[in-house]
Amino acid sequence: MFDKKSTAISCLDLVEANNGLAAGEFSSAELVKTCLNQIELHDIEINAFTHINDVEALKEAKKSDLRRSLGTTLSKLDGIPIVVKDNIDVMGLPTTNGLNMKWCPEKDADIIKNLKSKGVIILGKANMHEAALGATTDNPHHGKTFNPKVKGGTPGGSSGGSGAAVAADFCIAALGTDTMGSVRVPAAYCGIVGFKPTKGFWSTRGVMPLSTTLDVIGPMTKTVEDAGLLCEQQISPINLKSETFAVLKNFEDADSEQIIVNSFSKFKNVLTETGVCLTQCNLEGYEPTPARRAGLIICEVEAYALMEDILRLNPSAFSSDLRKFLEFGSKISGSKYFHTLQKIQSFRIQLLELFNEFKFILSPTTPQTAFPFNQNVPVDQADFTAVANFAGCPAISIPMSVSEHNPPVGLQIMAAPGKDAELLSVAAALQKLIDENH
After folding, report:
1. In angstroms, rounded to a whole number, what is the distance separating the alpha carbons of residues 76 and 287?
2. Is 64 a catalytic residue?
3. What's the half-sphere exposure (Cβ side, CA atoms, 13 Å) at 74?
4. Residue 256: active-site member
5. Strand pairing of 193-196 and 216-221?
6. Does 187 score more than 90 pLDDT?
7. Res 181: pLDDT
8. Fewest CB within 10 angstroms: 29, 150, 277, 412, which?
9. What is the pLDDT of residue 3?
10. H/E element holding 395?
11. DSSP 200-233
12. Rounded to whole angstroms, what are the CA distances from 384 to 124, 243, 254?
């Protein structure tokens, strides 16, 4: 278990770390060393990493410190250590995609090239659910990643290592990928912020795909402002009373743990007491579980097509469970795949129509909180998150409730495609409201 009372500078959020570097309170080398010390002390309990880039990270930190001393800092992100999910290529580091194999990419993924040009330091590669096809990060090849906030619990997935690394203060921020909720689910379980930008916001070239139809790269951070800084999106002051918010009835009617229901009810009461107008909306005929299953069909078909050659040449790289998933995908007819795509397209159109009436749609991020690994895995973990991937719209999970006695609960906020800055701005305002009423 980890405590934010620690005075280690690895506990700082990205904005605080940037301010501290700019003020000369500490160097990037000191920041990286502190993160590496946290990893050395505690990752044996968490298992967030598949590879730690310690020597190179310290070299890059010293280069950043030299730039700062010369007044040639590359950006506000210069000298900031982050962790990268192990399906994103980083030149010089092995990529596994959570499989029982690795390859050394000859060049950086586009997102890594972009961040390195701003002086960001890659601290290591994060453990993940095998091939990103699952939501527990119970990896048969690299071991389970444990939730720093819930003893013995899953951090969620598939970006579980990234979420755990941020929650455990092993890094200042992390990158994950989100196909039907794989950034937002671990963010909710670990009590951090997980942002899925608009589809295409960041290039996915150099990322091992699961579903080219649904995949998006997203930041996992300690605050909403941090996500804005990583995404270079300006967060503006928001008058919550002037915005239009709706709650999605389809998710309110779904089965959820009582702690989720209670936390969301409390949040809605805070909104209405603050004078925020809150109404209800509905996606006609949308059932979260069958819709999520439709998304899974898309993932299984596309994952098989994308990994067919690796599976044929190196079958031992895949667990028997993953092989079954992919074999199932190989047997789905072109007709069924096409009709499923059409179904998802109809969900997209419906959600976009709601955004003509409401700027922001609110819901819990997940129907449950982080659960122990020895418990049966709920099938509905992505029931509330998948629709944002279907629509290609931005969605964010922020902590709605984090306490020492209860597991974290996430609040999901969705907005229309392209409204990333507006979504981050309103999420920051809502986070402030939640913190003030905690």
Report:
1. 43
2. no
3. 18
4. no
5. antiparallel
6. yes
7. 98
8. 277
9. 40
10. strand 395-401
11. TSS--TTB--S-TTT-EEEEEESSHHHHHHHTT-
12. 30, 22, 9
Catalytic annotation, pick one of 85, 125, 222, 419: 85
What global pTM score does this model have? 0.96
Rounded to 5 degrees, what are φ and ψ at 295?
-65, -35
Q: What pLDDT sits at residue 43?
A: 98
Active site residue 182: yes
Identified catalytic residue from 64, 159, 162, 182:
182
One of 10, 28, 64, 158 is an active-site residue; which one? 158
CB-based contacts of 378: which residues, under 8 Å, 6+ apart? 367, 368, 371
For residues 178 and 173, give the distance between their C-alpha atoms in angstroms, rounded to a whole number: 16
Biggest alpha carbon distance in the chain? Answer: 61
Sequence letter at residue 357: E
Helices (H) and strands (E) in the chain, counts: 14, 13
> Could you read off the pLDDT of 189-216 as tens digits, one per residue?
999 999 999 999 999 999 999 999 999 9
For 395, other C-beta atoms within 10 Å of its C-beta total 30
**Distance (Å, whole) CA 350 – CA 376:** 33
Q: Which two tokens stand for residue 156?
A: 């969620």
Own/partner contacts of 311-319, CB < 8 Å, gap of 24 or more, are 314/101, 316/100, 317/99, 317/100, 317/101, 318/99, 318/100, 318/130, 318/131, 319/100, 319/130, 319/140, 319/141
**Confidence band of 2 (pLDDT split at 50, 70, 90):** very low
246 and 360 in contact (C-beta within 8 Å)?
yes
